[in-house]
Write a structure and sequence with these properties.
alpha/beta, Ubiquitin-like (UB roll), Rossmann fold, 5-stranded parallel beta sheet, protein serine/threonine phosphatase activity, HAD-like_sf, protein phosphatase, nucleus, EC 3.1.3.16
């Protein structure tokens, strides 16, 4: 393979170009890139014609050693979690079927959150995963952990620049959040692509806020539940183990996929996914509303464990109404004077 080149993934009758691959790119990093394009998780991917001396290469193998030529077509076998869930879904005409997704998720989360086998995995990540701090963490600040894809930008749509796919009000949101929170970016992809995405979005060197550190897919763990099968999740316990000043009391995570915070359901807020940027850029105000929520709970709440983040919009509305009521009382008083 050339020093910087690309290949093509054939899957489900479509072709997906994977560009800017280097000789040093590992198979694991390639799978992470394929996951971004197809939503097929790395552990479900089978690359039929990827061979090294007749054998399937290890994830640590770099592509330069395999000798892929530019434009080489790899055939992918694998299913997305959505397709698997659809195939396993009970028919609509079955009797006594309880279709309560929220209840199932909460039940699964509680079981997984307290399972010793997964707590042991977290301890291993705490011991082995290396965090490179980009900026010093500050005393008496809370922590905000953010996903990237479909949370901060639409990674699937086509555009001439990353800015066109950036979620509206991203920099205002991060600027306002930084006043009360140390900010961490955690994405289910490789560190190289996190760094590149943050650079393209103008996040890495913005003068109005600072990112504490990035975390990639290597900090995640795999968990199994009867309802979802094997899934990769982002356990906040990895951060809490390395930085004891942060805990469920002062940490909140945003992600468009609820299962990512299965190990810490009380600390996760599922953000509405930002897709089709060209159609939705003019009307998406999610980050503005969430900035209001983050400010409100940072000021008014000493323990985030008392909050139900699923009701964040109601919380913000109540605070807004309360503020409006106080404002009206002050105006009436002023008018009487």
């Amino acid at each position: 393979m050339a020093n910087s080149s690309g290949i093509i993934i054939k899957w489900n009758g479509n072709e997906y170009p994977i560009n800017d691959l280097m000789n040093e790119t590992t198979v694991a990093e390639l799978k992470a890139r394929i996951y971004e394009e197809t939503d097929v998780r790395p552990d479900r991917q089978k690359l039929l014609n990827l061979r090294l001396r007749g054998k399937i290469p290890d994830d640590e193998q770099n592509l330069g050693g395999i000798g892929l030529k530019p434009g080489f077509k790899l055939t992918l076998m694998g299913s997305t979690e959505e397709d698997i869930a659809q195939a396993n879904r009970a028919p609509d005409n079955m009797n006594e079927v309880v279709n309560d997704l929220s209840t199932e998720i909460e039940s699964d989360d509680v079981e997984v959150e307290n399972a010793h086998i997964y707590l042991a995995k977290i301890q291993k990540r705490i011991a082995t995963y290396k965090i490179q701090e980009l900026n010093p963490l500050r005393e008496n600040k809370k922590m905000l952990v953010l996903d990237i894809d479909y949370t901060l930008f639409d990674h699937r749509s086509v555009a001439s620049s990353g800015i066109e796919l950036m979620r509206p009000y991203l920099h205002e949101f991060l600027t306002r959040s930084y006043k009360h929170y140390d900010i961490v970016i955690w994405s289910a992809t490789s560190m190289k692509w996190i760094v590149e995405k943050m650079r393209l979005l103008g996040v890495a060197d913005n003068p109005n806020y600072k990112i504490a550190f990035y975390m990639d897919y290597l900090a995640m763990i795999s968990v199994y539940t009867p309802k979802r099968g094997l899934v990769d999740v982002k356990p906040l316990g990895v951060i809490w183990g390395k930085y004891p000043a942060y805990s469920p009391k002062n940490t909140i995570m945003f992600d468009d996929i609820r299962r990512n915070f299965m190990m810490n359901p009380g600390s996760g807020l599922r953000i509405h996914a930002f897709r089709e940027a060209h159609l939705n850029r003019g009307k998406d105000r999610e980050l503005l509303k969430l900035a209001d929520y983050l400010e409100a709970i940072a000021i008014n709440e000493n323990d985030f464990q008392r909050l139900n983040h699923r009701e964040w919009e109601d919380y913000s509305t109540k605070k807004s109404h309360r503020h409006s009521s106080h404002r009206q009382s002050y105006d009436d008083f002023s008018m009487e004077d």
